[in-house]
């Protein structure tokens, strides 16, 4: 039977150190307790737990509001858990949410929404909730949640690029984690009154973007604002956003991004993580600088960030 539902896929990452430290039995028990708790949260929000897949849980909800509400509670409560756990046991959570037609057969669910929720979960960073535009719009007003447009992404298995949003649940938003606002019904933070520009250069071509142009995507895909035709670069590799008077770079790739600031000694390595961009420097995509990575030069003007 086909029905329109909201699919939530929540997955834990970073379990390898847990198994290495605690051993297979204790680590497995820890993961099982976590996935049981994840399922209980979904049930409490009106969802149905379809199945548990290793470190993840797949749930189906009758409405996008219920699904996003469950995802939000999962992330908020899990962050409280992480503060109490030893470093070795700190597994991060990633959540994908999609709304669409699903087919239920013998208790399992199939359909495009299931596949998309799984892909969004894969692409979401630690502590993030990524949703489709249909899910974000369908959720309406969700208490203490801001929907922010991440832009257009190509998802594995989809013939057309998808418009993706992030359901931002943090009470104290850090600038590194925020992306551009979306015109949705939920509470939206005001636009920054400070403006800046960033110049990106690749193989002799230079492009400039203002803080009003974000998000800017870097990647091999032709739909990326800065298309980098190198096989070592992911189709959508990194994203540049603007918040609180500064540009931020977020890695959304499979193999990582590295950032060098002119005049500095250290290189910042990003794996589904974010950092601020300021001054001038270089961004290496897919591999470290010393490995001969394809790199993009950047120059920031007008940012509130200053060299310390």
Fold topology:
Layout: E1 2-13, H1 16-22, H2 24-44, E2 48-53, E3 56-61, H3 64-84, E4 92-105, E5 108-110, H4 112-123, E6 129-132, H5 133-139, E7 146-153, E8 162-168, E9 197-202, E10 205-210, E11 216-219, E12 226-227, E13 238-243, E14 246-251, E15 257-261, E16 267-270, E17 274-277, E18 280-285, E19 295-301
Parallel strand pairs: 4-6, 11-12
Antiparallel strand pairs: 1-3, 1-4, 2-3, 4-5, 6-8, 7-8, 9-10, 9-19, 11-13, 13-14, 14-17, 15-16, 15-18, 18-19
Overview of this protein structure:
The structure is a single chain. With 308 residues, the protein is of the alpha+beta class. The chain has two domains: 2-177, 2-Layer Sandwich (Alpha-Beta Plaits), CATH 3.30.70.1230; 197-301, Tumour Suppressor Smad4 (Sandwich). It is 22% helix and 38% strand. The protein is built from five helices and 19 strands. The chain has helices at 16-22, 24-44, 64-84, 112-123, 133-139; strands at 2-13, 48-53, 56-61, 92-105, 108-110, 129-132, 146-153, 162-168, 197-202, 205-210, 216-219, 226-227, 238-243, 246-251, 257-261, 267-270, 274-277, 280-285, 295-301. The strands form three sheets. Strands 1, 2, 3, 4, 5, 6, 7 and 8 form an eight-stranded mixed sheet that branches. A hairpin with a 2-residue loop joins strand 9 (197-202) and strand 10 (205-210). Helix 1 crosses helix 2. It is globular and about 55 Å long.
């Amino acid at each position: 039977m086909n029905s329109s539902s909201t699919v939530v896929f929540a997955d834990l990452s970073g379990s390898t150190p847990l198994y290495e430290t605690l051993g297979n039995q204790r680590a497995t028990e820890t993961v099982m307790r976590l996935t049981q708790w994840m399922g209980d949260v979904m049930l409490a929000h009106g969802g149905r737990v379809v199945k548990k897949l290793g470190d993840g849980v797949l749930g189906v909800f009758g409405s996008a509001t219920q699904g996003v509400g469950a995802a939000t509670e999962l992330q908020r409560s899990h962050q409280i858990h992480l503060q109490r756990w030893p470093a070795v046991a700190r597994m991060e959570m990633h959540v994908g949410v999609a709304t669409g037609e699903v087919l239920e057969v013998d208790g399992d669910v199939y359909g495009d929404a299931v596949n998309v929720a799984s892909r969004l979960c894969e692409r979401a960073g630690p502590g993030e909730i990524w949703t489709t535009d249909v899910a974000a719009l369908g959720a309406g007003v969700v208490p203490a949640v801001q929907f922010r447009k991440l832009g257009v992404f190509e998802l594995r298995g989809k013939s057309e690029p998808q418009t993706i949003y992030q359901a931002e649940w943090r009470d104290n938003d850090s600038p590194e984690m925020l992306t551009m606002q979306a015109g949705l019904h939920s509470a939206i933070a005001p636009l920054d009154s400070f403006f800046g520009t960033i110049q990106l250069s690749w193989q002799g071509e230079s492009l400039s973007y203002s803080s009003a142009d974000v998000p800017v995507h870097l990647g091999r895909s032709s739909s990326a604002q800065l298309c980098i035709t190198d096989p070592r670069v992911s189709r959508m590799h990194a994203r540049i956003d603007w918040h609180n008077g500064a540009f931020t770079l977020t890695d959304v790739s499979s193999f990582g991004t590295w950032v060098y600031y002119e005049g500095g000694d250290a290189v910042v390595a990003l794996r589904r993580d974010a950092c601020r961009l300021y001054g001038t420097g270089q961004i290496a995509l897919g591999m470290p600088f010393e490995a001969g990575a394809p790199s993009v030069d950047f120059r920031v003007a007008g940012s509130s960030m200053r060299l310390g």
